[in-house]
Write a structure and sequence with these properties.
heterodimer, A: 243 residues, B: 359 residues, 6-stranded mixed beta sheet, 4-stranded antiparallel beta sheet
Amino acid sequence: MKGGGPVIPNFGGSAHALACQKANRLFCWDWFSSNWSGTLWPALRQHVLLVLIAVVAGFAISMVLALFAHRYQRVEQPVTWFTSFLYTIPSLAFFELLLGIPGLGLNLVTAEIPLVAYTLLILFRNILTGLRNVPTEVLDAARGMGMSRRQTLLRVELPLAMPAIIAGLRIATVSTVALATIAVLVDGNYGLGKPILDGIGDYYFKTELIAAGALAVLLAITADGLLVGAQRLLTPWARMRAT
Amino acid sequence: MGSALETDASPAVGNARGRDASSALELELRNVQKRYPGRRDPAIPDLSLTVPAGEVCVLVGPSGSGKTTAMRLINRMIPLTGGDILLGGRSVLEREETELRREIGYVIQQVGLFPHQTVQENIATVPKLLGWPKDRTESRVRELLELISLDPAEVGKRYPHQLSGGQRQRVGVARALAADPPLLLMDEPFGAIDPINRATLQDGFLALQEKVRKTVVFVTHDIDEAIKMGDRIAILREGGTLAQYAPPAEILDSPADAFVADFVGADRALKRLGLATLADVKLPPMNGDKPAGDVPVTMSVRDALAAVLAAGGQPMRVLGDDGEVRGLATLDAIGRLFDGNSSALPDSVHSRREAPEQR
């Protein structure tokens, strides 16, 4: 993108450098507004999609694994080992490893695999802990009143595990927002990683880096806030506890 | 009774007899045996007893006597390994587990209310499982809250953690009674409550039982509670054998053996007096002595004795409900109730309640 002219480098791909761009202020609002619809907004939308797919898929897998581990104790150890192992793989190496697998190219699927993998440990543990922490007397009462196993799970265990489940979702979501920026390594045109990488590459003008980074932070905070709101809606009983 | 052969899928039907029926069923344990795999001695070798419909049977004994195990065998929370249990003449073994449990009220010491549900929702648990129509469930919940003296408008929408321990326990009982079960199982229901509130809850439950007349199996380790609550007491000894099964008065008057005598305590004469009121005692008429004070005829003999002792042995004047003088409560008159080992008190002195009406 660079090399518009020999004397004044052309920053940010725009043909005419903006005033604040020439002055190289720390943050150039004009640059921000003129690149919003073309660069930042699409990147943000892609980023949201990356995170959403990763968390939803990770949650579905973790829920199934946790329900198994809840029912069959011996499932827990192997699942914990495996998800911990996935979690320890350095993210850069993870993408590189996947590219060696035939059929996985430089695309969204390859980008999602590590993102999903990293959510599993935290989500699995939180769901399982939530289910296990349901007081035994509550389970005894549920059984004694004639609830089937399925009814107990749906009407008692999952609702009571909800605070722990949402706590896990919050951590998984926030960390995935940050982690999803490296998806740019696999799919060079995807997510907030792209403007961040461009911003890093630009030695002088840092507005793009700051803007994209700030969007990632705002996205994380917003997602976290939405989950807190969801928790308040889903667990009115826990909220009343404080009052 | 007992034509509840309908399956889960046919809601309402099993309970169509309605809440007015207030149906209690006889419970019979027939040569019940419980063995745990890998253990040489059975937890319960061979237990047989019958609880007549509408009576409270208290299972009492030291730890390791299998009292809670015996109770949990009834609703099949623990599987039976021998013998049979009949509810209203029908074996519990031929019932589907969940269906059976929905027909048996279940109260445990830690209550086990659902923390994520309001009081109303908690009480509605079994009606919901049975698929009652919404308005029927709602009116039943209101009725039960009134029965346990809680204001439906005020308490109904609260969550369990917003209630006191005693209120929670009452809600637990209401929840167990929701579908009007013919049998109620209570495992140390008041065990975690402080002594003052426990007495209130016990009295409250007895008053409730007066109205609903359920067959109740009540587990406790506290002999005083057993005497207070039970129409009959089954005393179990370590190893799960039945030492004695009789009404409280009979157990206090004539303990079957040294174990029972020891278990009921050296003060069993006093406990016996606690079961009788002054109306049961032949009181000497007023004489020239000046009584130390007045006591009502409805007072327990035990309390009257305490009053006499506190007055330095001087008699108390006994007054009837109408204020009429019934005689004098003297040390001598109370002492004469005992003749060696057994008391001269009538057997019916478990006077709080009379024998339940038979269906």
